[in-house]
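Box S1 | Example of a co-folding query
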Amino acid sequence: MKSYSIQPLNENVRRELQQKIDYKTKPIGALGKLEELALQVGLIQGTETPELRHPHVLVFAADHGIANSGVSAYPQEVTWQMVQNFLNGGAAINVFCNQHQIQLYVIDAGVNYTFNNYHSRFINAKIGYGTQNFLEQPAMTLAQVYQCLQKGNEVIELISKQGCNIVGFGEMGIGNTSSASLITSLICERPIAECTGKGTGIDEAGLIRKIAILEKALNQLGKLSNSLDILATFGGFEIAQMAGAMLAAAEKKMILLIDGFISTAAFLIAHSINPLVKEYAVFCHQSEEMGHQIQLDYLQVEPLLHLHLRLGEGTGTALAYPLVQSAVGFFTEMASFESAGVSK
Ligand SMILES: Cc1cc2ncn([C@H]3O[C@H](COP(=O)(O)O)[C@@H](O)[C@H]3O)c2cc1C
Ligand SMILES: O=C(O)c1cccnc1
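Box S1 (continued) | Returned holo structure for alpha-ribazole-5'-phosphate
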């Protein structure tokens, strides 16, 4: 596997950055989490004059064999139909990206459909026509995991060439909350029932069925010792590509905007490969999907927004982006006590 050489944050500038924040015309600490965010961005970029350039959201899409076992409220074909919707500009993520001038790319990581689509925002990174059903066999091979990590890397190379230094990670894939639950249960070492929620909106009986299915999968294939095996056995092509892209983006010192439950499951894999990726990550919102809290507790992070979202697509990242802009804005533009002639 490619080794990821993620740099630790530039601690040499921490004192100056903190001082700059403290000298702004406000009581010490009064901008709360925005101050932490400004400090993080300053440390990532190693400068007192950070800038956000060419923001992107990447929506990785793929299908899941498990979708045919009754774990989702929607049929598998919704995945490809939503990909078309993204390309036609009709999804929630399109609206929020347009609102904030964020560039969107839709990546076919492994949708069960052939797109003959030459849309400029579409990237063909297809590994297969959906994963295997993990009730029968591992979702993918280790070779496919490595291919996925490489594809994630290539997407980051592409947006890096376009000058991007802040990227949101989103996904689309019917059945992928099941993968995310299994990954969370194994990495965070918590019972699968605590990591499993209603996804697209199954009812109580459906939830009980979903938990039983995931328990069965764990009993059959769940004796796994490392995160790449977890990814191969229970993951999805979109989750694996996201994990690779997250690591590659951190290597390039981009700011990583992490969305909800599925995006954070991919982050758990990336984090277990190289924990330094966390230094570059902003956790954008708290998802309604119950396992998300377990993931956030495990990573010891606090999300920015609590909007009761349970959508995915990267929507939380696009909604949080203006907060990162505000953090950078106050940090670079606000007057200091000295420059404004305000008494301390
Ligand atoms: C119309 C529609 C749009 C979506 N956009 C994101 N998801 C979200 O729901 C799916 C995961 O939930 P589950 O595991 O229950 O299938 C993913 O595709 C996720 O991105 C959607 C789901 C639907 C139905
Ligand atoms: O939090 C998420 O990412 C999520 C939750 C439910 C369904 N799809 C995505």
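Residues 56-321 form a domain with the Rossmann fold fold (CATH 3.40.50.10210). The chain has a mean pLDDT of 97.
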